[in-house]
Every structure is written in structure tokens, then in C-alpha cells.
Amino acid sequence: MTRVLELLARLPGTLLPFAIASSLVSLVGVGWWTALAGGVAAVVGYFLSAGIAQMLVRWWGSWRNLLLGQTVTYVVLVVLLIAASDQQRLWLVLVLGLLAGAAAPAERVCMPNVRLDRSALGLSVLLALACGLTGAWSVPLAVCGVTAAAAVPVLVMRRYRVGSEEPQ
To answer: What is the separation of C-alpha 104 from the centre of its chain, rounded to a whole number of angstroms?
Structure first.
């Protein structure tokens, strides 16, 4: 069960570029280049998130607090992304995509596991492809928010005891 939660906790960061690109492609008058730019902004934010997480864990003092704080921030940014995409605010989508990528829960930094990272990326591609083939263009953005809001807090509760900052 813990491995599944760890995989799902990595999914918001890896799925976000595909989710932003697919939500932008579905808009009338938006080209592939704009969708690609949205995905690239999320990827840049995702790569920046590792350094940001290392810096913030020193400030907040624990991975538990960092993961929960990142989850709240990420979910708020994804909700704003969905609204900006529906309103066709392209520049706002690019900025929010960069910020959401940087705020993605840092499970990959907290507990490094290359196999789970690759599995999360593969699952993200499959999910984005399935949603694209069925025409559900905005579903991946909703999945990003739901998996972050559901999987990360449950994983944190399973991993850390109430009085302890160390993993069990």
C-alpha cells in the first residue's frame, strides 16, 4: 500500500506538464506551440522544485511539514490553473504552470526512488494519452489536484508518527 501511495504522490509533478498542454490544446485558437510552452513551463518548475524543497526543508524543519505545505499550495495553484485555462488566460496559465511545477509535492526528493519516478512518468503519459484519445482534455488537471490532495496527506500520515519527525 505504501508503494502505491508513493507512486501516486509522485504523479502530480510528472502529470502536470501533460495536463497543462492538453488543457491548452483543447482551447479554440490556441496552437501547439502555446500548449508546448505551457508544458515546458511546468517541466522547468518541476526541475526547480528539487532545489526549492531542499532549501525549504531546512527552514520548515521536517519533510512532513514541507510535504503538507506543498500539497496545499499545489492544489490551490491547480484550481487556479483550471480556472485560467477555462477563461483562456494563456499568460496566466504559463505563470501558474511554472509555479505549480515548483510547488509539486517533493516526494521524489524526500524518498528518492528512480523506479517509482519512472513508473510515475509512464503512468502520466498513459493517463494523458487516454484522456486525449477520449477527448477529456481537462481531466488530467483535475487528476493532478485530486491525487495531490488525497495521496500525499495519507502517505504523510502513514509514514510519520504524530510526535516524530522521522519516518517509521
So the answer is: 4
